[in-house]
Amino acid sequence: MKNKSLLYRFNAYQKERFPIAVLIFTTLSVVLSSAVIVLTIEDSIVNHIPAIIIGTITALLFMFHMRVFDDQKDKQFDTDYHPERPVQKGIINIKELNFLNAIGLSIQFLLNVFFSLYAFLWLVLTLGYSLIARAEFFMKQWIKKRFFLYNVLNLLQLFFVQIYLYALFNPEFSWENPLLFIHFIFALSNAALIEVGRKLKRKNEETEGRDTYSARLGMKFASVLFAGVYLTIYWMFSYMLFSLAETLTLFYISLIPLGIIITSTIIYLSWDNKLSPKLVEGSAILFYLSTHLLLAFTRV
Hints:
Elements: H1 6-17, H2 20-38, H3 49-73, H4 75-81, H5 86-89, H6 94-113, H7 117-134, H8 140-144, H9 147-155, H10 157-169, H11 178-197, H12 213-217, H13 219-244, H14 249-270, H15 275-296
Helix pairs in contact: 2-3, 2-10, 2-11, 2-15, 3-4, 3-6, 3-7, 3-10, 7-10, 10-11, 11-13, 11-15, 13-14, 13-15, 14-15
């Protein structure tokens, strides 16, 4: 593997640590729903294709930036508890990931500095916060022992990304718009849903590092947390959907992913097999995509 090209080795890395095929669609979906919230009722998202492309590329590259920083911070932890991961197996190293990240950061700057200066300033703030997260909030030993707080503070990087997206489509967006505030919480909650969903494991899949929600809370309470998040998201989604468009069709469609994610939660608790955690993670991704895209369809 070491004799293979960097592109080949990065492909092996991204399949496990940064699945681009999935992230392109999840990123595009949140960009589209963000546009819908800040555009005027007469406007359509099809009138903003350049901003959609720039926002999707930027958000995707920023998430890669987060992944690289996480792999740097957690290198020793992963060596101890996850030796199967690409960096630990020697498929790719941190120096090479930093090189690719530098290219990604350059692309983000070039795309945004000439398109929207206001959005660019929010992007700079976003990258600034990521450096604080990289330094583990200047309290490495203390924060590492507080699993939930540490994850929340890291997830807040997406707080700034979300504001960047609003600014990209409408520099004059206002927090006085109740739908925007609800969408902001909705988008962050959906990101949290993916985070929790991918960290629900079976008992025999847990490591001594206890870096999953199921290890910290137990399968039952972790499932309650998971269900609480997606039910709250669905309530916010329903409110925004009926505020944006008086249609029952999109609402009825939304009941399908809701039913799937509820079923996957029940299966996870009932069946102790390798497939159940994958069903939970897959249903979380489907739920994420569907709720964002159904909002977007109100302004097509």
